[in-house]
Amino acid sequence: MSDRPAAIEPVIGLEVHAELLTLSKMFCGCAVVDTTAASPNSAVCEVCTGMPGTLPVINARAVEFALKAALALHCRVAETSLFARKNYFYPDLPKGYQISQYEMPLAVEGWLDIDTPRAAKRIRIRRVHLEEDTGKLFHRQDASLVDFNRAGVPLLEIVTEPDLASLEEVKAYATALRSLLRYLEITTGDMEKGVIRFEANVSVRPSGSAGLGTRTEIKNLNSFRSMLRAVAYEIERHTDLLRQGDQVLQQTLRWDDAHGLTYPERNKEEADDYRYFPEPDLPPLQIDSAWLERLRASLPELPEARRTRFTSKFHLTGYTAALLTAERPVADYFEAAARASPDVAPERLAHWLTGELFALLNQAGASIEDCPLSPQALGELVALAESGQISQTSAKAVLAEAYASGRNPAAIVAAQGLAQLSDPAAIEQLVGQTLAAHAAQVEEYLAGKTTIAQWLFGQVMRRAGGRANPAVVREHLERHLRGLDKNRRVP
Q: Which CATH number describes the domain made up of 424-489?
């Protein structure tokens, strides 16, 4: 009888590297530049290129940003942490080692709660620490070039415990962590520029087992899509090997996005392979408790707390609240619109923001920060639509015009004559005129062809030039038809 497991479950841990939004590098005064736009090797100096005799100096702002992340992740911050030399040789590492933290990191033992379609889950954070980024290689047909602009940029590393058990959890954690870091305004989170990169540790085991299988590490995944595809591929590969009775080798892997597969880069290193030892040119990093408490007090309302408040204060669904709070500028925009329009139902504001306005932003390839329509203007537009002063169709047209021109919605409505007719006396007159003009159709209705009421409704709207309030028209039309029917049945 086969001893191969029938059911297998994945075990996944993530290491997330985020470039910090500082003006200068981690250990020198070189400017942090956009490596996709700046000239190669234009933001380098003797320190970040590892010239002999140079000395590093710790960037205080980078430490501040890292501490904010650690506090937001509920970590225990070390009073004393150490920088170490992580030794390995690669062309984009000019010193032959990376200044990082290992035995005494900045913070440990945190957590981040995530929501998945199945359930909420708490993901444990093993460590949060600071290090410097490497350079960037560009491979040509007959050569490889290196740009050191990125070398030395402050890098925040956040490592989970192996608590993730599915692709849904991996995506939820990565999305929630990026959102939190952007709320703290310590990174741009721009994955297209490699500002956030993921490394996934993947293994599988028999379902219900407490042990861990042999893991592989997938390096340098710079998009959610690549990360999920790579993890899915490794889960399937491990599972196939296990079911065939073969062994998974512990390796460091690269993901080939074009071909949809991983390939081995080297056998997986352990800590001893890097020959960590304390950085002799940097003193221990001492964290003042008063400074730490000031940073704790300065933290903004974070996504989870804001989502909870939106559901209770504005009576939004959990889905809508999550959509609005995923990005801090969007949540700020919504709250500003709600403050400016207290008489408008918040769920209607949310509907217009996440529907019509998001569509215009996506079409323009713009973010909410670039939106030419102010929160106050959106609130005014929704108020006009929800009060019946303009139709829903007109409201969409006004929104598009206001977005394109920056003009006030009320001014557009007045200039284009889009105000909706809601006056009961005027609509009563329109209904009477329509019924008188279509006596034959009225007779058909009274004879039992009730579907003709919708046709009569359309005739009233046509007579009103499409400007009549549909709800008021329908109310008056139905009352007229009921009255005619009642009179017809009276002997």
A: 1.10.10
